[in-house]
TrEMBL record:
Pfam families: GFO_IDH_MocA, GFO_IDH_MocA_C2
Residue spans crossing the bilayer: none
Domain annotation Gfo/Idh/MocA-like oxidoreductase bacterial type C-terminal: ranges: 208-453
Protein name, entry field: Alpha-N-acetylgalactosaminidase
Amino acid sequence: MSSSSLVGRRSFLQTASAAAAAGLFVGTGRSSRGQDSPNERPVFATIGLRNQGWAITSKSTGLADFAAFADVDANVLGANLEQLEQRTKKKADGYKDYREVLDRKDVDAVMIATPDHWHTKISVEAMLAGKDVYCEKPLTLTIDEGKLIEKVVEQTGRTFQVGTMQRTESDQRFLKAIALIRDGRIGEIRKVTCGIGGAGASPEIPAVDPPKGLDWDMWLGPAPKAPYRALPEMRQGYGGGVPLYTNCHYAWRNWFETSGGQLNDWGAHHVDIATWALGASDTGPSKITPVSYSMPVDYKDGYPTVADRFNVPTSFEIRAEMPGGVPLIITSSGDNGILFEGTKGRFFVNRGKLTGKPVEELESNPLPEGAVEAVYGGPVSGNHTANFIDAMKSREQPISDVWSHNRMLETCHLANIAMRLGRELNWDPTKREIVGDAEANAFLSQESRKGYEIDM
């Protein structure tokens, strides 16, 4: 969002927070200790612990105390409780049901790193329980979920941080990229390309018994009822130690029922930076065109015709028409990162490099003093959790706020809808709906499975 709208929204949220403390909003009766004692070391709990759950926890133990963990996999829960004790010399309580965490009065904030289909339910219920929230990206499974989260943030006045860490990474590479653009180093932007990589297809994956210790029904939660599926081959590297082909651990990213493939995974990082650089964080695209794409299974009316293999796009080129007619290309081809092209030059940025003639010219013509800080909105902490805790203390919103995140993620969600239906979509960024296409608009939401609706 623009700096002016962010300041306005922050002021509103400060007012909302004060009103909530006075009992003027629904769902704030169970306020946490953090709102009453913002200067104390906060007490956190993590919900969803495999891989990224432990990653964000381990990065935060120097700044917060962890009182509780929750995970539906007993093996993951136990292993992480042991790791926490080894790291901090303190014990935390473990739960299968996250609601027991939300009932605790001593927990100020929750860190959510579950699969995507659980994010909205836990986030909303945590805010209504008086907790501040840190939730991993992508924040939502659907566009309407984003609207709901925004509503509850405003209703409760809670601080909410999304895990798009490229906004706060310690070497400031992405912040410098935006500062270059704002300082006119490439002139007017003519094109932005986000390379986010493709996804692999899978063979037929049979239904088998879930692993011992995993509550499969609760893992599915709001997602449609389905059998647990897995093949014996194991994943290697990051996220390893689980089946390579499954509809559960790690590979849930390859199923629309629980995620959105590369568009919602890497897209949530690079499209975020691109949208921020374009000054489009409080609006969005007007048109989404699936230039080319490949689906791993056949689709009918936007739904896969088989249920036993990965179903998200494997390769793609998407064109999003951004404000001012600037094309934003999202592609599975090329180097992972963002290429900015303007009337006076171009440069490329990713997590390993910032390259191009405008970057080389910084040696003789550096950015103005404070240019990076101006992008960030103040001194750069370089630590995502520190930014979250600072926002908790000030009762403001952090650098990765829900509004800017949802706006950019709408582009990713729309790209997936366009590929599922095989057609161009016209988007109204003011009404936040697809123009003249009732079938496509039906994909803006997904009904929760009975028994796992959001507890409002």
